[in-house]
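We modelled the chain as a single entity of 186 amino acids. Its sequence is:
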Amino acid sequence: MRAGCGDRRGREAERMQPAAPRAAADPLRGSRAWGSLFALCVALALLGTSAAVAADKAPSWGYELAHELMSPWCPGFALPDCSSGYASELRLWILEQEKLGRPRAAVKAEILARYGEKMLQAPSAEGRGVLAYAIPAALILVGLAVLVRFLRRQGAAAAPASSADPQLLSRVDAEFAAYESTNPAE
């Protein structure tokens, strides 16, 4: 048999030969440093990704303003809950204004000038809007005052038993004793 042509011993002999020594071997080869380097890269990638996701999820004033407004096209619905195309356009417009760097107060003032105070979910605490907060508070205070006065009058109307007529008390006691003697306790 010839060595090398299907001969098993030839191939084994080639494998048994020592490999040529490498000049200036890689200091990280075969050590734990590769694993540490890989773990460090993964950790940095995860930190960068989580920071980017957190930045994306951070609500901006544009989203907050849209949630504070009612939809003029869907009565009774907040702007984000309205399915109207006009509501979608207004939401996008608010976000565009934020990206352009306009102040929130200016954007809100423009929307209120265009659509009116009916856009606010809660009335402003200025001007006539103060009445929306003051009237219920005043009604509650008046109701409490009426309740206190009523309870005081009820307490004064129920006079203590000691101020009753002594003849009347003796008559009530006699009648009660007569009732108890004819109807014994069960």
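As a brief sanity check on the tokenised model: The radius of gyration is 45 Å. The mean pLDDT is 77.
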